[in-house]
Amino acid sequence: MHRLITIGVSHYCEKARWALDRSGVAYVEEAHLPVFHMRSAKRASGGSMVPVLVTSEGETITESAAIVRWADQHAAEPICEGVSEAGLALEKTIDGRFGRAVRTWAYGHLLPEGKRHVEAFGRGAPRWETRAMRLSMPIAKRMMMKGLGITPERTKVARERVVSTLDTIGEHLEKSGEYLDGGRFSVVDLTYAALAGPLVNCGVTTPIIDEARVPAAMREDVAQFSAHPAGQLIERLYRTQRNVVPVSD
Ligand SMILES: N[C@@H](CCC(=O)N[C@@H](CS)C(=O)NCC(=O)O)C(=O)O
To answer: N or C of the chain: less Cβ packing under 10 Å?
Structure first.
């Protein structure tokens, strides 16, 4: 069986998970809490980043974009073929600066509240990790905030980057129509929706954070982003494409 090593709440991991789910390939997810993921990631790939896919043939694939392409080779309706140069450039921008900005924005709101969000961070992680994280939260929180460079200033800058990318996506959508490239669901849409999902609290089937627990300032942002045309695209893609497994004839 193929194994996908993840941090449950990570949007880069969600991107790989979405592509694998869509491909219909059977796999198991080994989700961890941040910090606890390191041992498994290192063992599988030698590095500390997730997602990591270890195929049943023993191949190790790092980088969510590469995992999406691996999954796509097994999908009945491939989404990576025939994407325009401009579409690929947009995918790259979303994958890089935008994805990192979304993470900084989300952690900037959630990490200061520490323990309150341990379950959400660890979606699918072993219970012992959740318990250990609860106990070690003051230290883990400091480690994560330092490691990810989360400060109020950086969270503010990340939010500005998020807003300007949403505006760009909104303008792009006015020209491209229903989808971001080529008039059909493609890797550009999947990459965008997965990496932007936290902005509108979109998870696989349920919100990422229990609605009642979303911090007030984050809630205001989520409401603003959800009303934006580019935010509405995220919700539409989750609703219409997230749990769809195309079947071949
Ligand atoms: N470019 C990478 C980015 C993945 C990434 O940033 N993963 C984060 C989780 S969101 C991670 O593993 N962070 C933990 C670490 O670096 O130790 C990809 O697309 O897979």
So the answer is: C
